[in-house]
Amino acid sequence: MASSVIILVVCLHLMGSLVEGLEGRKSKCERITIPMCQDMPYNLTRMPNLMGHKDQSEAAIQVHEFIPLVEIGCSKNLKFFLCSLYAPMCTEQIDIPIPSCQSICEEVKSRCLPVLRQFNFNWPHMLNCSRLPVPKDGLCMEVPNITDSKAHKHHGSSSFLSPSPASSLPSKHTDIKGNTERESKDILNSIEKMYPFLFPQRRDDMTAQSSYNPSAKPSIHLDAFEMSYHLNTDNSYGGGNGKPSKSGSKCFSDFVYIPIAGQNFNQSQAVCAPKCGKDILFTRNDKNFVEIWMCIWASICFMSTLFTVLTFWIDCQRFRYPEKPIIFLSMCFCISSVAYLIRIYAGPEFVSCDRSDSGEDHITLEGLDNSGCIIVFLLLYYFGMAATMWWVCLTITWYLASVKKWAHEAIEAKASIFHLMSWATPAILTIIVLTLRHVDGDELTGLCYVGHHSPNALLYFVIIPLSVFSTIAVLVLIIGFISLARNRSDIRFDGHHNTNKLDRLMMRIGVFTTIYTLPALCVICCHIYEYMKSREWLEAALDRSRVCHDTNDVNACRLADSIPHKEVFVLKIFMSLVLGISTGIWVWSNKTWSSWTRFCQSTFGRRQRRNFKCPQVLHNTQYIQVQQQHLTPSSSVTSTAIVNVPHNQILRQQPYHHSYASIKSQRHSHRPHRKHRTNNSITNV
C-alpha cells in the first residue's frame, strides 16, 4: 500500500508540474551570450525566443550553422535578421521578445534565395517571413542606419550592423549564373557546411549548370526502423539506397518539415510530420466517433474502478491475499482511464501536437517536449503495464492459495516481492522508451503512446512485453485449474470443510479470469494487426498525398474513407477499458452493500442517544468491553455479559463496583423479552 501511495504522489507531482507549465512564468531579460549576436545594436534578449529555444546555448548551436551563408554576403542584413529571431531584443517595459520587421525578412530572402535556388536549396522553413510582424500591427525592429560596414562598438558591449545596398554586393554573388564551376563549388561547399536539418540534401557531383528542376516531385522515405515521414533521397517510396538525389525534396501540403534526433545521437534527420487537424489516415467523422467512444467507456471504467478502490479503502480487512492484487489492478486501470479523460477535456492539440519552428502544428514524433504528451504517455503506458503485472501476481497468489494451500498470512509475507515486480518492471520499460524517444502521437485518438510511427517500437515495447506477461498468467491459471480438478475432493481452503464455499470461490475466480483473459488477448491481437499493416497504411496515405500534389484535384486531396479499418482501433479501445471495468465485478456482492451501508451510517447517519432497551446502538466514541459473571435464576450455569460503556463515562465513574451496580439495576429494570431469556446468553447493554 505504501508503494501505491508513492505512485499517486508522483502522479500528483506531475500534474502540478503540468499546471505550473500551463500557467507559465514571465521570463526576464538576460544579456546576450551568443557569440554571433554579441555585436548587435542591443545587448539584452529574452528566452524562449521565436524559434522555441529555451536557453541561449541551445539557440547558439543552431544560429551558428548559418555562418557560412552569412560569409557569402548575399545580404548584409542577414546577420541582424538571424539574431533578431534567435536572440530577439528585450526590454523590461514589454513582456514579449521583439523581432525584426517582416520587411527585413523579405529583403534578406529576396537577396539570398536566388543563391540557394541556384544550387537547388529552398528557403528554410523556420525563417518564414509571414510569422514576423509589420510596424502597424506590432512591435518590431528596423535595420539601424549606420553607414560603416565594419563592426562599430556601442555602449561598450554591442555594435550596429550597417545595411548594404545591392550595388555593394560582390559581383560573384549578384550574378550567380556567370560563375565558374570552381566558384560555384566554393559557394556550395560553404552552404553545405550548415546544420543538416537546414539543408539535409547532399550532392557530390553538382555543378552550377546542373540539378535545379522546379518540377521535381517531392518524396517521402519509409525508413526501415522508424515509421516517420522521412524525406527520401532517391525520389521513391521506400527501400531507398540512401544516396542523394539531384531533384528537390520537400514535404507535401499535409506535412510539416521538422528535424528529429537520428539513431546516432550526434546526427539529425529531416522528417515530414503530419499536420494536426489533417486527415492523413482517418476521416474527420471517424475521429469524432472515436472521441465519443473513448469518452463513454473511459468514464464507465473510471467510475467502476474508483468504486472498487473506495470499497477497499472503507473495508481494508475484507480484502486479503490471494484476492488483494485485484485492488491494485483496479487502481492502475483507474489511473489509466484518467489519461483518456485528460485527452477528452484538453483536446488532441494539447496532448499529441507540437509546434514546428515555422509555427505550424504537427503530430508529435518525439513527445519529450510536450508536457501533456508525457503525462498521458506515463498514465497509459506505465500503469497499463503495471496492471498486467498485477494480473500475473493475482494468478500466482491464487495458485499458491488454492493449489499449494498457503494461508493468506504466508502470502502476505511475500507482498514486497509482488510490489517490486509489479512497479519496477513497468518503470524500467518506461525509462527505456523515454530514453530512446519513442513517444509519439496518434492521429485517430489524439493520445500519446508507443509505436504509432515506429512499428519496431510497438513490437519491442508493447507487443512482446504484453505477450510475455499474458503467457505467464495464462500458464499459471491452466496449471492451477488442472491441479484443482485432480485434487478437488482433498482441497480444504483456509481449513474449512465447506465444499460449497470452495465451489463459489472457484467459480468467481474462473469467471473473473475468463472475463479478463479474453480482452487482454484481444488487445494484443489488435497491436499485432497494427504492426503488420502500418507500413501498408502509410504507403497508401503517401500515394494519395502524391496524387493530390501532382494533380491538385479536390477529390484526390479529400480522404473519403479511412485507410485502416477503424473497427480494429475501436475494438482495441473498448477491450483496453473493459479490462478495468471487469475488476469491479469482484466487489459486486452483498458484502460490498453491507460495507457501504455501515460506512454511510457511521459517517453520515444522525448521532443516536443511548437507549438500553436497544442493545445494538452504534456510537462513534471509543468503547471498553467489560466482562461480568452472573448466574441465571433458573440455573447455576455461568453466562458472560459484555457491557459496552463509553470510555469517557468510565473515567468519570468512581469505584468499579458502583458502575457495575448501576448497570445491574438498569438491566433488572428493563428485563429482556421472554424469547431472549435463555441459558448461556450474551446480553449487550
TrEMBL record:
Keyword Magnesium: no
GO molecular-function term, one example from the UniProt record: transmembrane signaling receptor activity
Compositional bias segments (type: Basic residues): 665-678
Membrane topology: Multi-pass membrane protein
One CC-aspect GO term: plasma membrane
TM spans (from-to): 290-314, 326-346, 374-400, 420-439, 459-484, 505-529, 569-588
Pfam families: Frizzled, Fz
Keyword Glycoprotein attached: yes
All residue ranges annotated as the FZ domain in the record: 24-143
InterPro entries associated with the record: Frizzled/SFRP, Frizzled/Smoothened_7TM, Frizzled_dom, Frizzled_dom_sf, GPCR_2-like_7TM
Chain segments carrying region Disordered: 150-181, 662-685
Keywords of this entry: Cell membrane, Developmental protein, Disulfide bond, Glycoprotein, Membrane, Receptor, Signal, Transmembrane, Transmembrane helix, Wnt signaling pathway
Biased composition (Basic and acidic residues): 172-181
Subcellular localization, as worded in the UniProt entry: Cell membrane
Low complexity bias: start-end ranges: 157-171
Superkingdom of the organism of origin: Eukaryota
Ranges where the G-protein coupled receptors family 2 profile domain occurs: 290-595
Similarity field: Belongs to the G-protein coupled receptor Fz/Smo family.
UniProt protein name: Frizzled-4
Protein source organism: Oppiella nova
